[in-house]
């Protein structure tokens, strides 16, 4: 493993005993320590993904290799009980490899539902007929699509 002057990791190499080519994962960090590029090299082939962030340090884009992703934090025009949830730092939408997701929040900034469009047939593990997320008085997630979650008196998921 390699590290920069601040001690943050900048790379790791995996070597294999059977003579296979080593795999190396290297990152380039901004002055603030955020990863702005990641390159994976497997033998002679390599793939680089670049990342951009907003002034608050939130990931805005990841492009290159097998991913093309963008994330939004719109201050207005959102959905759910809190259409201005993006102003509080909540992700309001994303597009990842052509699949769009919209995130809706309640007034306590809790995610209440998502809407996915453009996903391949059968790709979603969440029932489209039950897209909601529910919470108890302690803020624990008690409903997640068609799942019910239970907690003990110490708010531990059981």
From TrEMBL:
Organism domain of life: Bacteria
Protein name listed in UniProt: RHS repeat protein
Taxonomic lineage of the native organism: Bacteria, Bacillati, Actinomycetota, Actinomycetes, Micrococcales
Naturally occurring in which organism (per UniProt): Labedella phragmitis
């Amino acid at each position: 493993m390699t590290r920069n002057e601040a001690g943050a990791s900048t790379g790791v190499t995996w070597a294999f005993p059977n003579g296979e080519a080593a795999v190396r994962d290297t990152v380039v960090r901004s002055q603030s320590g955020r990863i702005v590029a990641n390159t994976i090299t497997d033998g002679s082939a390599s793939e680089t993904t670049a990342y951009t962030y907003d002034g608050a340090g939130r990931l805005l884009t990841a492009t290159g290799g097998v991913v093309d992703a963008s994330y939004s934090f719109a201050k207005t025009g959102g959905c759910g009980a809190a259409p201005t949830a993006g102003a509080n730092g909540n992700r309001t939408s994303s597009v990842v490899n052509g699949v769009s997701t919209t995130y809706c929040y309640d007034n306590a900034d809790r995610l209440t539902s998502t809407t996915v469009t453009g996903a391949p047939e059968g790709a979603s593990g969440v029932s489209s007929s039950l897209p909601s997320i529910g919470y108890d008085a302690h803020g624990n997630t008690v409903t997640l699509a068609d799942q019910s979650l239970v907690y003990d008196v110490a708010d531990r998921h059981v």
